[in-house]
Design goal:
Layout: E1 2-3, E2 15-21, H1 22-29, E3 42-46, E4 52-55, E5 69-71, E6 83-90, H2 96-116, E7 125-132, H3 135-146, E8 154-157, E9 162-166, H4 171-190, H5 196-206, E10 210-212, E11 215-219, H6 222-228, H7 236-241, H8 244-252, H9 258-270, H10 273-287, H11 294-301, H12 305-319, E12 324-326
Parallel strand pairs: 1-8, 2-4, 6-7, 7-9
Antiparallel strand pairs: 2-6, 3-4, 3-5, 8-9, 10-11, 11-12
Length: about 325
Amino acid sequence: MYEDEGINLFKLKGSIVFNVHWMAFVWALLFIGTSEPARGDIYRWVDDKGRIHFGDKDNSKRNSKKASEKIELRMTPSNWQRFDIKVTSIDVRLTDLETQQIISDVNNVYEFFDSVMYFDFFRTVPVNITIVKNKKKYGEYLQKTIGKNLPSRGMYISKNHEIVLYMRKNRKGTLATIKHETSHAIIDSIAPNTPAWLNEGLAEQMETLEREDMRLVTHQHKENRSIINRVTMLPLREMLDLKSRKWRDKLATTDTYLQAQAGEFVFFLLATTPRKSFVTSMLQEYKRGSRMRSLYLVRDNYIGDVGGMEVEWVMWLKRNNTTVVRF
């Protein structure tokens, strides 16, 4: 979920803080090859207030009373570097493996937008991730920070570049939500005029993004596919013509399936090279500041116009056997 209202961060005791100034030492975390040893280390230590910190410096060398524990990282190879990430978990214990996974996942989402969507980042995009204990605490956090509790698994709040979410029983699903909200953070920072359906659809697909054999891949979102198989979806032409605020209003009230429809539609667009190129062209338009509704971009740039896209979409829904897209 995307929320564009500003918030003021506040400090909480008993939190776990993880700072990564990625530009400075990402190469110390990543393998250059599957058999090459890591070129640097990450350490964990506890401060005077009992908070757990992660960083690339061995704190025990400066203070023998605060011994640092070295963490072994087994990262997937990648060349992407340009982001600054801070993870705070409140009353939630993240395992070392989960910490590694968050770094790797955020890295993959950034690389997707850089190397697949050609965003060509001109500045570092900060990502502040706050993970709270449960749904109740999540609601309280939202109420305190933005003044309302919205039904969601996670939220990106743009003013402070903060992603907030709660740890679900499905911890793997919780980490997928971080990828979802990271996508919102990137689009908000680089192409804020992107239509809501495309913004949300890309975020939905980023939940399935991973790396296989050195390539980024995205899978069909099973939950979304299940939802759209049970509902009568909004006609494609109407969805493309909706202004973002209207789309979000419909999502929040009557047409809650719109998020699933947007995710499956983006998967459809990414599944072939010509359609993927069209998505890239759209994002480039919005990156340059365009406010044109996507329906008109389809008419101007999509081979076959809107009618052709509608026919392909219907055929996809009826016959599609695609379960993975490789980039």
